[in-house]
Design goal:
alpha+beta; Head-to-tail joining protein W, gpW; 2 helices; 2 strands; 51% helix
């Protein structure tokens, strides 16, 4: 769902907003989204959602190998 590039783009947008830029944009893939009336709080919520999505994806990508044997004892 989300990847490291998405997180970096949002963090850059947050830094831009904090430095006083009024219009903040985010690019990912072929898509560019420009926010004119977004608040810092909304960007922080989006960043948290991306982090949560990345954690969920990482959990799904972990492999777990289970060995089972049956000796009939």
């Amino acid at each position: 769902m989300y990847n490291r590039e998405n997180l970096e783009a949002i963090e850059k947008a947050i830094a831009d907003m904090q430095s006083g830029r009024r219009i903040v944009g985010v690019s990912y893939g072929d898509t560019r989204v420009q926010y004119a009336n977004i608040t810092l709080d909304e960007l922080l919520k989006l960043r948290n959602r991306i982090k949560s999505g990345m954690e969920d994806t990482e959990k799904l990508n972990k492999r777990r190998i289970v060995f089972m044997t049956s000796k009939g004892i």
